[in-house]
Structure formats: structure tokens, C-alpha cells
């Protein structure tokens, strides 16, 4: 059974930082591309970033480029999202997702497994 568990969310003031972690189990982590998405109330799920299994390729949404950094540690079966210079509009539930394709993707429909999400709230 595949499970993705996110952690690291919380309440932070605008301009602050958070690091999200996601630890999948039940899959061969170093063969999956990983992605981060978020969804705010009443909004569609938004792609944020993705990284391929070998860490040689990353992709970012324009809304987070330069502020967020994705990384992964295949030895620890963990993917991270470092979020800096947070803004109130970053408030959302953040999800990690696993994609068995070797190519990274910004389309949520290409991801095979999803975590339950972690809440990030940025106060002004």
C-alpha cells in the first residue's frame, strides 16, 4: 500500500519560511518523479514544483520561482519543499505527489499517488 505523508506545515508570518517534507512508503522512491501542489479554498489545485528521480531536472511555477526550492534525498526516501519569503496568498493545503513517469510534469492528472496534505497559513 502506497502512502505519502507530508509534514512541516503550520502558521507563519509573511516574509517567513517553512520547509515541507514528504516521505512516501510502499513504492520504490528513487524511480519516481515527485511534485508539490497546493489548493486554497474555492480554488483549483495548483502545481508548484517537480523534481525527477535523479535530481537532474526541476520545474517551478512562475508564482513560486525564486522563493521555493524542491529537493529530494533518495537515501532518506524524502522530498522537500523549502518555502521562503512567504506571502498571505501562499495560504493553502499543500500536497506532495508521486509520478512513475521518468519525466517531470506540472499536470496533476499525470501523478499516480497523493498525500493527505498539510496546511500552510501565512498571516499578514
Describe the 3D structure.
0% of the residues lie in helices and 49% in strands. It is mainly β and 124 residues long.
Features:
124 residues, 11 strands, four-stranded antiparallel sheet, mainly beta, seven-stranded mixed sheet, globular
User: Percent of residues in beta strands?
Assistant: over 45%
User: From the helix content, strand content and strand pairing, which structural class follows?
Assistant: mainly beta
State the separation between the terminal residues, measured CA to CA. Answer: 40 Å
Query: What is the typical, i.e. mean, pLDDT?
Result: 96
Tally of separate helices: 0
Give the SSE order as H and E letters.
EEEEEEEEEEE
Helix content: under 10%
CA-based shape: globular
Biggest sheet, open or closed, and with what strands and sense? 7 strands, mixed
Number of strands: 11
* Poorly predicted ranges: none
- The Cα radius of gyration reads 13 Å
Could you give a short description of this structure?
The chain has about 120 residues and is an all-beta fold.
